[in-house]
Write a structure and sequence with these properties.
about 150 residues, SAM-dependent_MTases_sf, binds S-adenosylmethionine, Rossmann fold, about 30% helix
């Protein structure tokens, strides 16, 4: 759909862990799209819901196996600092699989929606996972406060 509609932009994920879904995302990126990967690889104390712990070496090995390691901007940071630290061009595909609390989900969606390109897509992991209700709560709060008809659910 993006190719047909000439939509370009950044492709990446918040919460890449070992990069399994990131490899899928990266395989959908064109050579002109920039790639980014965000995770708390270093300071585990920032991982407040303790869902997994990123492993940079493991991630880079998997990215190399997927053939995309040379072109990834890696951000070893909690997603809340992502937009402060970097100047991401408009995002056309973003997976949100970092912090799973209501607040973190809300903040990630808010940040992502501000840099999403027209026609851009946000994938939300664990949306129907009853073990992580914060994801759906954060999403609902985001819709109530910030939706403004811009995002379409599918
Ligand atoms: C469920 S795992 C992600 C799985 C991964 N998407 C995959 O395809 O296998 C969650 C990851 O989010 C990271 N994480 C947790 N809180 C985060 C935050 N606030 N910002 C960025 N990453 C975070 C964790 O370190 C962990 O690696």
């Amino acid at each position: 759909m993006h190719v047909a509609r000439d939509i370009f932009g950044t492709v990446g994920e918040i919460g890449v862990h070992h990069g399994w879904f990131f490899a899928v995302l990266a395989s959908c990126a064109r050579s002109c799209d920039s790639l980014f990967a965000c995770d708390i690889f270093g300071d585990g104390s920032l991982n407040v819901d303790c869902k997994g712990n990123g492993g940079l070496e493991h991630f880079l090995t998997n990215a190399a196996n997927a053939g995309v390691n040379g072109r990834i901007n890696v951000f070893d940071t909690a997603s809340v600092f992502l937009l402060e630290q970097c100047d991401l061009p408009s995002i056309r595909m973003l997976s949100k699989d970092g912090g799973h609390t209501q607040t973190l989900t809300y903040n990630d969606l808010l940040s992502a929606s501000r840099v999403l390109s027209e026609g851009g897509v946000i994938f939300i992991d664990d949306f129907l996972n009853t073990g992580w209700c914060g994801v759906q709560r954060g999403f609902s709060a985001f819709l109530v406060n910030h939706h403004q008809g811009r995002l379409i659910l599918f």
